Amino acid sequence: MISPILPTYNRAPLTFERGEGSWLITTDGDRYLDFAAGIAVNVLGHANPVLVEALTAQANKMWHVSNLYHIAEQEALAERLVAHSFADTCFFTNSGTEAAELAVKMVRKFWTTEGQPERFRILTFEGSFHGRSSAAIAAAGSEKMVKGFGPLLPGFTQLPWGDVAAIREHIFADDIAAVMFEPVLGEGGIRPVPDADLKAIRALCDEAGVLLVLDEVQCGIGRTGKLFAYEWAGISPDIMMVGKGIGGGFPLGALLATENAAKGMTAGSHGSTYGGNPLACAVGNAVMDVVATPEFLGEVNRKAGLLRQGLEALVASHPDVFEEVRGAGLMMGLKCKPPAGELVNAGYAANVLTVGAADNVVRLLPALNIPDADIAEGLQRLDAAATALGGK
Length: 392
Description:
Layout: E1 16-20, E2 23-26, E3 31-34, H1 37-40, H2 49-59, H3 72-83, E4 89-93, H4 96-113, E5 121-125, H5 134-140, H6 143-146, E6 156-159, H7 164-171, E7 176-181, E8 184-185, E9 191-192, H8 195-208, E10 211-215, E11 239-242, E12 253-257, H9 278-291, H10 294-317, E13 322-328, E14 331-336, H11 340-349, E15 352-353, E16 355-357, E17 361-364, H12 372-390
Parallel strand pairs: 3-15, 5-6, 5-7, 7-10, 10-11
Antiparallel strand pairs: 1-2, 2-3, 4-12, 8-9, 11-12, 13-14, 14-17, 16-17
């Protein structure tokens, strides 16, 4: 008999009832150090008082009115995201997946507005993840996500990950509209695109006159040590998706764009009932209050250095378990020799939470404000998990 919840998740045998900073507590009272952060979502940890206060204050005023009316909290957050990024405008969604869906629509509407509707094809990278909507799975193209869901939305060509030469080979075709990828692969195994390659891809897009779309749903909002990962390379996209961390745990996403890229999206061309909800945007503004400051981002970089140093030592101590450390900022991955899922499970036994990824990688995505002591504690618990795994 099917369960009341559609059985599409392979859940761990854990149920949490509350969280405190970088810790989660089960219904049985066991404490787990959270190096997953809801898959890079809880950027300020659990039950952060700043976010709790913002949500409570807004809940006592107004929950929802829909986008039939002006929403002050939404307009304030949009102004801040524009001020802190390349963008001129933004559209709020409930998730990164919805932002990806709009990115595809915006690209195609742009070229229709330009009088070139035949330019609809988007170049993407193999191993990418843009969500689970019809457009998002077609963009990624992996068998795991698309099998059984055909016919797929046409208009995507997947190229080898990070292959600038392959982009050059395809980008000048008459039907190419955009290049779309994650600056740091998340689900695809924590693989940062080198800064030099980001610059080269931006230059190719300019040369070919096509749009550059970046997916920063997982790597954005301070995760790499800058507010947005593209900043490290000194380039800017035309369109960008954000999500996860922007709401600090409250469902929120956004699409950011230049005025030029967005010029086809006129009144009635897109919409959302809940997108930009006052509750979500009140929390989003509180997240920006904390994360979008040089002092906070400087601390993310310092903590990232501590974590990477500890992970490098861990790899050196367990050559039978680990191959390498990869990633950027507090978006780290451990490439494993045994199946990565075995390390995740060993972590449960050591009361530390991690996240699996492709390429046999375990993701480490702690809260961006994780205390130094919790980083040290997490490394000890990962060491215990690796020791248990290596002794099998």
